[in-house]
Amino acid sequence: MKKVKIGVIGCGTISAIYLKNFTTIFNNLLEVAACSDINLETAKEKAEKFNIPKVCSVEQLLADPEIEIIANLTNPKSHYDICVAALEAGKHVYVEKPLSVTRESGMKIVEKARENGLLVGGAPDTFMGAGIQTCRRLIDSGAIGEPVAVTAFRATHGPEDWHPNPDFYYKTGGGPLFDVGPYDLTALVNLIGPVSKVQSSASITFPTRTITSKPKFGQAIDVEVPTHVTSILTFENGAVGTFITSFDMWTPQPPFIEVYGTEGSLRVPDANTFGGPVYIFKKGASGWEEVPVTQNYNQDSRGLGVADMAFPLLTGSKQRAGSDLLFHVLDVMQSIVESSEKQSSCPLTSSCERPRAFDGITFG
């Protein structure tokens, strides 16, 4: 099968796992033709490590006629500019989460792609992993009956103790909602369906954060976005969810996601991973039972969504982590922020289809 050539823009921390997977487990579909970064030395280091043939400026990369897909792995504030530039250059684009930092800029990306007949896809693609797809199969088969409620919980005490450049996590487009929230929201749309309404409350617990990682140890960060957000989600099918994201908690231990159905409950693995474990509690049972996760992509398979974008270019099938899903998740997050600010519920103006289930073997 022909390979789809891709160019990578943004060679920071997250790029390493993408490039590793692009050049190993997805190299039957993908060929990394070039990479670029605002710091070309960083791009050169990644190119040498992963045997990428060309390092160049963003402009040169976008002008390369052989490159079909741009993997936009820049920080959130740069997502819009790079996506639009790629689309104007006639490239399909896959962007790290979130799609953009505002609803308006996200919609402009989607509209630009439609105007030019191009695909937009993006992270997270973890919902395509073996763990969450096992949960999807259980729900679709009626193993827990009709889903009626869900809880989703994602909390840490922030990234300043491990990330080398944590500043952007506390600026527009960051915070726990926009940084880690997309994992759980995308998983929930995959498992339950789109959201119709949200109501939320948010706060900034620590107005200033001190970096304890290197190389910026001791530097202060002024916090500009909420660091604790609690939301009630109403789904289009009538299910109701509680969703908490936080950078303000020490060693939290609740389950990541639980889905409650009319015939049982389902404990979903961490939506920021691709594997298990998966547990089910069936009506009348004496306890939780672990469900084997047997599908492929149960390790860190970031880039799976790029492969799932490339396959439609070769076969005409439909991608799963597409623009409608990305925009709906962005719309949910923006609505959560607005609901907190207004202290009232916010109906969603967007919707999307549940992504097709993925068998973990083929991209058809």
What does this entry look like structurally?
With 364 residues, the protein is an alpha/beta fold. It has two domains: 4-126 and 302-323, Rossmann fold (3-Layer(aba) Sandwich); 129-295 and 329-347, Dihydrodipicolinate Reductase, domain 2. The chain has ten helices and 16 strands. It has helices spanning 15-22, 40-50, 58-63, 76-88, 103-116, 130-140, 175-179, 181-191, 304-315, 323-342, and strands spanning 4-9, 30-36, 69-72, 92-95, 120-122, 147-155, 195-203, 208-210, 220-222, 228-235, 240-246, 257-261, 264-268, 278-282, 289-291, 346-347. The strands form three sheets. The protein has a nine-stranded mixed sheet with strand order 15-14-13-12-6-11-10-7-16. A hairpin with a 4-residue loop joins strand 10 and strand 11 (240-246). Helix 4 (76-88) packs parallel to helix 5 (103-116), helix 5 (103-116) runs antiparallel to helix 10 and helix 8 (181-191) crosses helix 10 (323-342). The longest helix is centred in the C-terminal third of the chain and has 20 residues, at 323-342. The two termini are 14 Å apart. The model has no long low-confidence stretch (mean pLDDT 96).
